[in-house]
Write a structure and sequence with these properties.
Distance between the termini of chain A: 37 Å
Protein name (chain A): ABC transporter permease subunit
Helix content of chain A: over 70%
CATH superfamily of the largest domain in chain B: P-loop containing nucleotide triphosphate hydrolases
Keywords (chain A): Membrane, Transmembrane, Transmembrane helix
Pfam family, one (chain A): ABC2_membrane_2
CATH topology of the largest domain in chain B: Rossmann fold
Number of strands of chain B: 14
Oligomer: heterodimer
Radius of gyration of chain A: 22 Å
CATH architecture of the largest domain in chain B: 3-Layer(aba) Sandwich
Largest sheet of chain B: 6 strands, mixed
Bound molecules: adenosine-5'-triphosphate, magnesium ion
Strand content of chain B: 25-35%
Transmembrane segments (chain A): 27-48, 60-86, 113-139, 145-166, 178-197, 248-272
Radius of gyration of chain B: 24 Å
CATH class of the largest domain in chain B: Alpha Beta
Strand content of chain A: under 5%
Number of helices of chain B: 11
Distance between the termini of chain B: 32 Å
Chain lengths: 283, 312
């Protein structure tokens, strides 16, 4: 009965991943970056704020910056973990054998995705003790904290799916890596750039007319940018100023969630369809 | 009928890799697939293994279509590609365990099967060794064990003996004989033809994507028995021997190798004629010390058949 739900690819990938030294060193590197950051932050605040106190307000700032940093690290590591999932098997000539087993394409793709996601979640969990510091000093609500973690999850699953898709449809891992990092940079950076262009155009035209602003495109760029969503979660007043610029009151997390879920579904669908030779339609 | 290939055609752009291939094999047959580099052997096997879709035509394994029911076909076949890799950082038994799980075998079934399979391919002593540390021949045998894990009816082995030393080749052949005795239908492709001859029930010759001959080994060899080549070695008097043989009506294409004191010729006569020839030669005082017939192995069959196809 258990066998029906177990995923051999997932189990094997996890086994290999936890055996590989580079996973361990990657995790250590990640934790080191976070620790150095937190230590530096504490030092600067207690040294230069003139007080030896660490106020809830400062604690919140630390939480905010830590969250953004962690988001950046996660976004940066996800393509590296997933963009080679299928293509390295192709390059190492293990894929053919895997594809002649009776596992379904869905099982293989989901197994690959989940093993990467599991590792990323492990990283996030390993960073949790640092957050306990934030809770110790106060200033952050648990609901904010949980929302941020859900945001990580949605984002890393989506970027992971993009990586798996490129890994399936490209022949070479290097191409897949470039494409996935490209997509990640587009979502994380280029969208922000487009947003700011939209905002500045809005401001220019606002001087001329008195009509209430309405710019769905600018709103869209903001709503699919993980950084923008994070800022509106951390500082709800930012959501209001965004609304005043674009004239749309729908909270951007709604669009974000829909967009990233659709993106995930699309990428996984393509990956599953393209994994094996399509017997029926190629006739 | 276990394997039934019907009008299989595969095109890469305008290049025709497989051209209307038809082939049927009964259960339990060991089929040797012979052809030059690029003839289309691996393409055929990839289609049978559901890895490649044909441009047209279809193939059936035990009645299941590789095009329409690939999932059913995967249960029936064990496939060993010509080139394959292994996962580093998996041990031999974990390697088999992973594929066992991939075929939906339960943990208990796997626990029983894995030692048996390792025993079958003589790798019991490497059970806890990392797979990428095994030698080429061991990897090859491990891959064979892997292809057997779900007890398939049909084995598709693409050059299973390539890159093996003579000893490993003989080991591989013994394992295949054992599998044959278990009643499996086996398809093997190879460049090394003589080793196929003694193992296979049937041989198929493919050239430029076309199956140009198919039959049992003896039948194919018989096609070429008409002009056997005889080699005679003499102690000396090479010229006299040559003059003698030139008179025989059944002899043609005489060649003399001076250095080796060897005369070779095509002989069309029956066995009795050959006895007479030898008797006369000895009476004529020609110092023959050996007379041999050149072995007509599959290599020659193969060369002859493919040459014929080129000329056509
Ligand atoms: N993906 C591909 N794209 C274009 N041509 C291909 C492709 N794969 C194979 N071919 C061509 O199809 C022909 C048949 O190749 P195949 O690998 O089946 O030959 P083979 O009989 O297995 O040869 P070998 O003995 O060298 O293994 C070759 O001419 C090859 O160049
Ligand atoms: Mg080949």
């Amino acid at each position: 009965m258990m066998e029906r739900f177990s995923n051999p690819v997932l189990l094997k990938e996890l086994k290999l991943r936890f055996r590989a030294f580079k996973s361990f060193s990657g995790l250590m590197f990640y934790l080191a970056v976070l620790c150095i950051f937190v230590a530096g932050f504490l030092l600067i605040y207690t040294q230069f704020s003139g007080t030896s106190f660490f106020r809830p307000n400062d604690s919140f700032t630390m939480f905010a910056v830590l969250s953004v940093l962690q988001m950046g690290l996660v976004m940066f590591m996800t393509p590296g973990l997933t963009a080679g999932a299928i293509s390295t098997e192709r390059e190492k000539q293990t894929l053919n054998i895997l594809l002649t087993t009776t596992q379904s394409s869905t099982q293989i793709i989901i197994g690959k995705l989940l093993s990467s996601v599991a590792f990323l979640i492990l990283m996030l969990v390993a960073g949790l003790p640092l957050y306990s510091l934030v809770f110790l000093f106060g200033g952050v609500s648990p609901s904010q904290f949980i929302t941020i973690f859900l945001l990580y999850l949605v984002t890393l699953v989506a970027i992971g799916s993009i990586g798996i898709m490129f890994s399936t449809i490209t022949k070479k891992t290097i191409v897949s890596m470039i494409a996935t990092y490209g997509a990640m940079i587009f979502l994380g950076g280029i969208t922000a750039f487009f947003f700011f262009i939209g905002v500045s155009m809005e401001q220019m035209s606002m001087g001329m007319s008195t009509a209430t602003p309405f710019s769905p495109i600018t709103y869209f760029w903001a709503s699919i940018n993980p950084g923008a969503l994070m800022v509106t979660i951390l500082y709800p007043e930012m959501a209001n100023s965004l609304e005043s610029v674009v004239g749309i009151s729908l909270p951007i997390w709604v669009v974000y969630l829909i967009f990233y879920i659709l993106l995930t579904a699309f990428c996984l669908f393509v990956a599953i369809r393209k994994l094996r030779a399509n017997m029926k339609t190629n006739r | 009928m276990m394997v039934d290939i019907k009008g299989l055609t595969k095109k890469y752009g305008s290049f025709v890799a497989l051209n209307n291939l038809n082939l049927t094999l009964d259960e339990g047959v060991v089929f040797g697939f012979v052809g030059a580099n690029g003839a289309g052997k691996s393409t055929t096997f990839s289609i049978l293994a559901t890895l490649l879709s044909p441009t047209s035509g279809d193939a059936f394994i035990n009645g299941k279509s590789v095009v329409r029911e690939p999932k059913e076909v995967r249960k029936l076949i064990g496939y060993m590609p010509d080139f394959f890799g292994v996962y580093d950082q998996l041990k031999a038994d974990e390697y088999l365990d992973f594929y066992g799980a991939s075929y939906g075998l339960s943990a208990d079934e796997r626990k029983v099967l894995i030692p048996q399979l390792l025993e079958l391919v003589n790798l019991t002593h490497k059970r806890y060794e990392y797979v990428d540390l095994l030698s080429r021949g061991m990897k090859q045998r491990l891959c064979l064990a892997r292809s057997l894990i779900h007890d398939p009816k049909v084995l598709i082995l693409d050059e299973p003996a390539s890159g093996l030393d003579p000893r490993a080749r003989i080991e591989m052949r013994d394992i295949l004989k054992h599998l044959k005795s278990m009643g499996k239908t086996i398809l093997i492709s190879s460049h090394i033809l003589p080793e196929l001859a003694e193992m296979c029930d049937e041989i198929g010759v493919i050239d430029n994507g076309k199956l140009i001959a198919h039959g049992n080994v003896a039948a194919i060899q018989e096609q070429l028995q008409g002009d056997k080549r005889v080699i005679v070695k003499v102690m000396d008097q090479l010229e006299k021997a040559r003059a003698f043989f030139e008179e025989d009506p059944y002899i043609s294409s005489i060649e003399v190798a001076d250095g080796k004191k060897e005369i070779s010729f095509n002989y069309r006569g029956k066995t009795e004629d050959q006895v007479n020839l030898l008797r006369k030669a000895l009476l004529a005082d020609i110092p023959i010390y050996t007379l041999t017939e050149e072995e007509k192995d599959l290599e020659d069959v193969f060369m002859a058949i493919t040459k014929g196809a080129d000329e056509a």
